[in-house]
Amino acid sequence: MALVITFLFYFLLIVFLCIRGFRSIALIIILVWWGLWNVLSYCSISGLYTISFYTQCIYFLFFLFIVLAFFMYNFLFGKPSKKNTNVKKNRDFYNVLLWISICFVLPVQIFFASRTIYILSFVMSPGMYRNDVFGFVSGSPTIFFHSNQLALLHALIIGPFQYIYLFAGISFSVLRKKNALLLVGVSLVILDSLIMFGRFGYHYLIIAVILGLVFVTYFNGFAKLRSNLLKAFVPIFILLLLTFWITLYRGSRSFLDIINMYVVTYHTESFSIFDTELKNPGSILHQYSYGLSMLGGIERYWVLFLNKFGFMFVSQTDIVGGYLHRDFNIGIDRFSNPIFLNAFGSIFFTMFRDGGILGIVAFGIFFGMILAFYSDSLKQRDPYGFSILLGLIFLLIYGIFQPTTLGPMLPALLFLFLVNFIVKLYNKV
């Protein structure tokens, strides 16, 4: 019964949004994504525990209020928008990002990627390198010259840039047919995946290709959909092969194991973790942080700055990240063994930690309004606003895997805002 109710909830919301108009396409994408995995989580294909109806109602509350806030904002503040014609501002915004990549970001990542290839070729095996790069072997990664400070600087400064260029790159490619930033973004994601020897970067690129296809169709109609589908198929197929190869290289046994673990389980385990922690009175989920958890990706910079002056604070990124890194018993496999998994608390973990049910409702209203505000960029065809909108979509899509606001995506959006503000200020002066 819970499965049917959940399916009908998402289905009716999506139908309602489609009837009301395609300006809500960003919200439709988010609801389709969460609805798909939320419904699938009830099938318990990989043996994960299904969530209680109380926990399910928390998901219902968030998505209901995000839709209500979206339409309330449009009702109160919506007005006819003209196409953005500020060519100089768009050109300056584009050029600033391009020069930063050429002079700073790309050289740094190419250097560390080259060092990664050397280490993998002559120093250690891929399996050992994977543990070493996260500091599990010596506590300080070889790739960063055994310097935790350098590793931290790389994460805080270079980390957000792959998202900055991915969001802005898709935006300018779709709206202006300018592909340099997208090429930089794709290169940075691939280089980071090589450095960290991980799969998630290729997942980002697959989602980026799909979103690009959706918005190209949105702006240009269905006339060239068939040819665009063929163009999208090639990179998606290559990325899937790369992901499959890395997964096999890291020890997976068969294709069915990969589907079971890396498709079904990875996309649904956060529901079980959230449900388990809601029922655990000792969980930090019930220790409210009143906004700091959802701002953790930015708060982390201030905490490090204050700590340099002797103020001993601990960032919410470290508190929540450290807590979620432990194993949670969230299911039983086909051999009747308990399933222990970690690190996959969703964005609901941080939203609830900031204020319980009221926090979920408040952030639903916030995300609904900010999505409505930046959805106006679709009418204006404004590359800056569209890049922020894409960032919000990524933030909520990948919020199913982890508390994304604790990581580099949030600073990436802030940086895009600051670059646009500086460009506007420069043009006025």
TrEMBL record:
Residues passing through the membrane, by range = 7-33, 53-76, 96-123, 143-168, 180-198, 204-222, 229-248, 301-323, 335-351, 357-374, 383-401, 407-426
Q: Recite the UniProt keywords alphabetically.
A: Membrane, Transmembrane, Transmembrane helix
Q: Which NCBIfam families match?
A: glyco_rpt_poly (TIGR04370)
The protein's name in its UniProt record: Oligosaccharide repeat unit polymerase
